[in-house]
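Hello forum,

I keep getting stuck at the same step: I have a sequence, I want structure tokens, and every attempt I make locally crashes halfway through. Rather than fight my setup again tonight, could one of you with a working pipeline run this one for me? It's a single chain of 140 residues.
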Amino acid sequence: MYLWLKSFHVIAIIAWMAGMLYLPRLFVYHCEAARGSIQSETFKIMERRLLKAIINPAMIVTWVLGLYLAFAGGWFQSGWLHAKLLLVVVLSAVHGVLVKHTREFAEDRNTRPARYYRILNEVPTVLMIGIVILVIVKPF
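Reply #2:
Ran it on my machine without issues. Output:
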């Protein structure tokens, strides 16, 4: 059962990361759309659906299965897991920031330029690299 749950954990991670990488890119394009335009309204729908249907559920499944796997595998004493959990907490905080920005766009209150979202788009990538290295290499 452990390997099945681990498989679903990895699938949830892939879905979560795909959304975390795509949503800021949508924000970049949304910045260029005129407020109230058909294009802006379409972006609002896309952003909301991506967040509610993919990103949020994937994050929840990732956390639930990940914590279970760590417990079942006896990994909580490992330093690499502590570091990984720290990075996953930071990734979850970035998720929260994306939720906030989705609300701002939905209410036509965005004040940030596209450049901000281009930079924000790189944060999940950097965190993902650190997480994958910690899980595969287990350096400590």
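Residues 2-137 form one domain. If your local run keeps crashing, start a new thread with the error log.
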